[in-house]
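Q: May I have one protein plus its fold?
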Amino acid sequence: MTVKLSKAEKKVKYDKKLCRMLDEYSKVLIALADNVGSNQLQNIRKGLRGDSIVLMGKNTLIRRCIKVHAEKSGNQAYLSLLPLLVGNVGLIFTKGDLKEVSEEVAKYKVGAPARVGLVAPIDVVVPPGNTGLDPSQTSFFQVLNIPTKINKGTVEIITPVELIKKGDKVGSSEAALLAKLGIRPFSYGLVVQSVYEDGSVFSTEVLDLTEDDLIEKFSTGLSMVTSLSLAISYPTLAAAPHMFINAYKNVLAVAIATDYTYPQAEKVKEYLKDPSKFAVFAAPVESVTPAASTAPAAAVEEKKEEPAEESDDNMGFSLFD
């Protein structure tokens, strides 16, 4: 036999439960619970069972419990949750990885019809095609200026139509048409808005950052600190190497412009006086092949005089002269 508790007893029990969670857990996800049904919430609790607990309740009661717990325990860190307790929100206490828990919560979204007066979270577009409605239902389409035609005794939408824009309220005609077409355009579930960890509160976008993103952001911040330090001549660890290099350049420039010198500046001065001393000239070396080496000898042989022809015994006269 269950014993019914009074409102005061329920508040005391809730306060003990919340204080116990504040002592045991150091990580909390603050989730918006608009349009989330009890069955859907129960499924989320089952999916997170193990390292995470979903706690719903009135914001005023949760605020009071956190304040009382902070006074008794002396732990003021959870007071940073108070500004986040606005609207229909719930707390997900977890000991697991924050990103994994957030992704698990996002899986439990269910389709929902477009109710009258509801603010559309997304654009709603009615696709073209056969609606299956008889011609007597064309009045809905005419009111919403949706082009249609009658095809085989049913109403057919000719072109896609943007029925509802994001941020607009759903009217009675739009809601009735979507219900007749069997379209459930919206999906609802717990939406994680903020994350609390060890006294720090940050946006859920931080959970999507990778190591490369963190390195890039750190490098950007480091370069900005370096630039600012150099601009105002304020020494920092990031700007110190650049300051030393710039100072050495100034000292070197003074040594070059005056008679003052030091060992490191002597070579620079010597170079400026006569740069040709530091030029390296390499004489071209031609490769000598066996054929090339024998060519001069052959040329010499060709230049030798040919032997003189023997004198004619007839002293240059023929028999008929």
